[in-house]
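Chapter summary example.
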Amino acid sequence: MSETLLIVLALIIAIGIAAIIGLLLRPRAPVIDPAAEERLAALNARLDAMGNWLQNSHSQLQHTVNTRLDAVSQNIGESMKSTTKNTTDHLQQLHARLAVIDAAQKNISELATTVTSLQKVFDNKQRRGAFGQGRMEAIIGDALPQGAYEFQFTLSNNSRPDCCIHMPDKRHLIIDAKFPLEATTALEAAKTDEERLVATRQLRQNLGKHIDDISSKYLIKGETQDVAFMFIPSESMFAELYDGFDDVLQKGYRSGVIIVSPSLLMLAIQVVQQIQKDARMREAADKILTEVGLMVEDVQRLKDRVDNLDRHFGTVNKDIEQIVISADKILSRGEKIQSVEFSDETPSADIIAAPLRKIGAAE
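The structure predicted for these 363 residues follows.
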């Protein structure tokens, strides 16, 4: 604001000076009045003083403006440097975030490819069946030893279940994998009550057919167990069945077909593993009893030898006690001899007989 006032004041003064110079340069009549001459001289002096003051003010104004411009230029330079640094930092952060976004986009693309591949697997019934069978084989192969089970085993009626577990009573436990994906997907995607009813009817029909097939093909009296497992390789699908299809589960129980999920199959396999272990222990019971009898004989023999050793130690302790008694008597006699103390008693000529013992053959 002060700079503006100075500039305006300088302009006003310049205009005033220009007007005065114009008046002075204008032709005029010869001066006759001395007083006028004096006043003109005084006016010229004032104009010279005003010109000097205007020149000084102009120099001061120019210096002030230059100083302010330098300060403004410096502030602008520092501000531009700070702005450039902040912009560079923000750009670096932006590049880092873009790199993270690119990595996430790549992961999403890979996940989309995996999901697409999995979708292709699920769209094909044979591949979907192989997926369910693969999960079942992994669970059984991790829990049971080789020879305790067989995949694609042929029964007497020429039917081939997915897995056959050999039980101790010579009757096989049958496990067959099923994956009713279409009906389950349709039930999940149903938006209206009518669509949900159609999908539910279709899923119930598919499950009923699977149960009937397993019951009629794989439950053979005298050859297989009274129950068989229908393996569903999806926990969420099994939870859906357990929650909304209790009639299907009851039908399976009545038909001897138990629907199991991966977790329930692992639990059932652990039970089968314990049953096989108990059967092997029963088969080895005679051998265990024989080994226990031999171990008891070894313990009895060890006890007899310890008793013999105890008797030998008792005899040795008794001999040592008699030797200590004789040594004490000899020492007493020697002390009496040293002190020249003789008694009238005739020393006993009895000789202590050493105990005799037979040396056993074991010694």
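To summarize the output: Residues 187 and 200 are 6 Å apart (CA to CA).
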